[in-house]
Amino acid sequence: MVGRALLSVAIVGGGPGGLGTAIALSKLPFLQVTLYEKNPEPREADLLGASDGVKGGSKSNTHQRNAYTGNILSITQHPENSDADTRGAIRARRTRLQSALLDKVPEGLIQFNKKLVSLEDLPGAGVRLIFDDQTDAHADLVVGADGIHSVVRRVLLPDHQLRFTGNTAFRTIVPRSRLAHLPDITSTTAWWWGEAGHVYFSDVDDEKEVDDPYFEITVRSYKEPDIPGKTVVWGIPATKEKVASRVSTFDQRVRDAVDAVHEGEWGEFATFAGPRLSKITGWDKIALIGDASHPLSGAFGSGATFAMEDGWILARALEHSKFASHPVEEALEVFNVIRSPYYARMYEHLDEVGAKMQQFKAENNDFDAFLKAKIDSFLYGDKSFIYKNDIGKVWEEYVASLPSSN
Ligand SMILES: Cc1cc2nc3c(=O)[nH]c(=O)nc-3n(C[C@H](O)[C@H](O)[C@H](O)COP(=O)(O)OP(=O)(O)OC[C@H]3O[C@@H](n4cnc5c(N)ncnc54)[C@H](O)[C@@H]3O)c2cc1C
């Protein structure tokens, strides 16, 4: 870009993907980056209301249990105890991650209260962004980081439809002390698996840093009735009675833990998903990243990581293409070539696991055996392409594969 005007980049959405992308792109001196976020402030609703630099919870083992009998089906040691991977598994509140990312975004780069409603393709002149406050903006490159219900994706691909998966999460965090009297609830991270749902228990605070750390309870229900009008149900309050009804046949310990949550403390999150996109770029000037690019509703519990990886690769692609005659077009091509197959692999993996489990269920009546098979395929099948993905190495390998590098 030597001797040329700066390229303007508009990032839509200030979740982990948008913030991660803003950090990566703002380090490139030939870009002028602006992030537009619809919310009036830089965080999603924190169930606790605090976000003061606490790290996260990292129990050294995880229990998998039968939700009705409490029978322990497996115990996993987390990587922090192994020589192979010293990073460890940490559960932290999303607001902590948001705050940490926000700290690294250059001041003045984010505009709040900017809800994108549409985009216009301006041939030869970039993209016009149209906001709900009747204002607009222009950019050479638009990054759609606006989550699973992405407006950017809807404009690019109007026929792409999301559907309610039937799977709803009821989530809360409560002071751990409130559950301390219940046997086997707070001592480990644990999943209690049932037929039509499961319950997940986990620390979310680093107990060395907080006097009374918070503890997450998520009740997942797999067979919720369809949502009329397919409206987004995300973080709305759920009653105690509603959540209790989803675990009424579960082990007493689980029911007692769910009962210890006060009225008004549960949030309900309905998960939506949609088919894979064959391409995660459009108009030669738009990139979709994070949940906007692979609407899977948190299927791997790592969506924030995928979104940040997207942003980092996009930055490398832009840097790599900066002297090209059409730098944005070329960078998007590189970005798509690297990230699309990665998401394709995820979709394939989910299809394979789903088919395998259906077959296992048809052939086996024993519930514990079924659960063990499910846990094996969901938690211990080969997911190294996800959990050990070294994005720096991916980039090096891509560069090495180019004809000019040989
Ligand atoms: C129940 C559940 C549990 C999960 N658990 C985990 C987990 O443990 N670990 C993990 O890594 N991931 C988890 N995920 C997935 C994770 O939350 C997402 O993958 C991740 O947040 C994706 O980041 P993103 O930046 O792409 O999108 P989002 O986080 O959805 O951010 C999108 C941003 O865009 C803004 N926005 C939306 N529309 C507009 C608009 N029109 N104009 C301007 N701004 C807009 C939003 O306000 C928001 O700030 C979970 C998901 C679900 C559903």
TrEMBL record:
InterPro entries noted in UniProt: FAD-bd (IPR002938), FAD/NAD-bd_sf (IPR036188), FAD_monoxygenase (IPR051104)
Keyword line: FAD, Flavoprotein, Oxidoreductase
Stretches assigned to coiled coil: none
Region called Disordered, residue ranges: 44-67
Gene3D superfamilies: FAD/NAD(P)-binding domain
UniProt record, GO biological process: secondary metabolite biosynthetic process
Domain called FAD-binding: residue spans: 132-319
Chain segments annotated as transmembrane: none
Polar residues composition bias: residue spans: 58-67
Molecular function per GO: FAD binding; oxidoreductase activity
PANTHER family: FAD-BINDING DOMAIN-CONTAINING PROTEIN-RELATED (PTHR46720:SF3), HYDROXYLASE, PUTATIVE (AFU_ORTHOLOGUE AFUA_3G01460)-RELATED (PTHR46720)
Protein name: FAD-binding domain-containing protein
Organism, scientific name: Penicillium frequentans
Taxonomic lineage of the native organism: Eukaryota, Fungi, Dikarya, Ascomycota, Pezizomycotina
